[in-house]
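In response to a reviewer's request, we include the raw inputs and outputs for one of the modeled complexes. The two entities were modeled together in a single run.
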Amino acid sequence: KNQVEQSPQSLIILEGKNCTLQCNYTVSPFSNLRWYKQDTGRGPVSLTIMTFSENTKSNGRYTATLDADTKQSSLHITASQLSDSASYICVVSVGGSYIPTFGRGTSLIVHP
Amino acid sequence: NAGVTQTPKFQVLKTGQSMTLQCAQDMNHNSMYWYRQDPGMGLRLIYYSASEGTTDKGEVPNGYNVSRLNKREFSLRLESAAPSQTSVYFCASSPHGGGQETQYFGPGTRLLVL
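The model returned the following structure tokens for the whole complex.
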């Protein structure tokens, strides 16, 4: 069964600090991995998309990494801001399928 | 561009009532999707439409029906609402089709079934 596990479930950090969110997956055949940001009461918004051959991809202060051998991805947030408070969702797509597998998300709270 | 819009934003139903959730996109995307999001669970695909004129079941289709009215619009219908269908419903679209593409989500419809 295809699964995506995210950790931690929730995280509280101080403004200006860095943090790293984890995503482990058991999906086959792997197509790509995406990170979404979901603000409270809003729909998810894509941050990054990574294919099998990509190790790192950045989007401003967000940097995603992918290790296809260990089936792990991480999302690193640098110099956090209050606006980074949100749920971060890892999504893995299976080749040839319209049904992606979503993780349950990591809830990040950034305190001033 | 408004992107993906959904109506209504919030709805309360009694068990057994029916309703239709509306979704429209103005990005000329081929594919559209309906998801539900429940506390502590990931988004789950209910139905999708790979292109105008086609619809297919996702992971949790029971109790729902869909209509791809035209390229812009994709509606989700609950024929006889049940408390288990209390959830937040998101519509999404993607340019060419395929679960591998980045999807663009609407703001969601919050449904409470009493």
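As requested, we also summarize the result in words. The longest strand of chain B covers residues 87-94. The CA atoms of residues 30 and 96 of chain B lie 5 Å apart.
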